[in-house]
Amino acid sequence: MLEVIDHEWARGLVRTWNDAGWMAAPTRLGDRLAPLIGAQPGEVVFGDTLTFMLAKLIGGALVQRPQRHVVLTDAANFHSDIYIVEAMARRAGRPITVKAIDRATLDEQLDDDVALVMLTHVDYRTGEMLDMKGITADVHAVGALMLWDFAHSAGAVPLDVTDADVDFAAGCGYKYLNGGPGSPAFLYVRSSWQGILENPFPGWMGHARPFDFELAYEPAKGMQAFVTSSPSIIALAAMEGALSVWDRASMKQVRAKSLAMTDLFIALVEERLPGVFELVTPREHAKRGSQVALRHADGYAVIQSLIERGVIGDFRAPDICRFGFAPLYLRYVDVFDAVEHIAQVMTSKSFLDPRFAVRNAVT
Ligand SMILES: *Cc1c(COP(=O)(O)O)cnc(C)c1O
What we know:
Aspartate Aminotransferase, domain 2, 13% strand, globular
């Protein structure tokens, strides 16, 4: 980032768009991320934030199933995903019903009127990981398209979109990918969809020849067509630094450490504080992301009192204490120390102090 700010921009100014390959940054970073999700080069691009990436894929997908009128998503999905899928459905140019269902009933809801299924692969509240390959196959069996949200998966768990035959996916850069607050998200479009799937938000940076200033839109080839506006170069520089960490770490190692850490955390909490919390995250490794969710009626105050001690979890309404495990920089001793603090807070009931009940804007 300092190189971009002090040198490329401060000295090079606009010519650096050419000299440092800034125009290619969204696709270059996409190729760098691709192995983490099992994608091929030329199938991933970085750019907008996640909600907007989802909008592009939803809008593009709905055009591809013009005879169908239903979109299925999970009632437990992240609210932003539901807002955007409803908004895109309203603007589809034909009546479309978005059904936010109990995901356990997905099979019963799948029929030949379903155009698209949009699910988040690791549940942001519970940390439950879904069976990407099995669900994608069920969705394809009725001729519908599958869009996965990898917000809590990318950089956290091994993913193979090619093996699972996923149509579309998107994920954010600022969770387990460590790109920094509000960093650009990525989207994936299977190569067989490229040239067919349209970007519903065309802009000059996705044009085949942006500097010809033509008034007729002609999409660029490949993933560049999903870029709308000028790439945010400083944010992408941070993202590129974050992605470079994966040159030295394998997802397999990271996953092994993540499971060992979440196992350890669960075991220590249950040993030190039997019956105090309800474990919401699945014990089964195949169903667990890289977080542990503990339910407690005073969850907000518990998290606030832990934050004061330097154990930074977060709270998800109405009663979930959420602890994320980032194995790239978290140590086992940190897990022991965190549980020690949790035990002190719960045993002394210090979380009941009124100052921990004051709600912050970000929980
Ligand atoms: C974090 C998260 C988002 C955030 O979206 P932005 O538009 O990047 O702020 C969206 N969906 C899910 C499932 C998330 O967990």
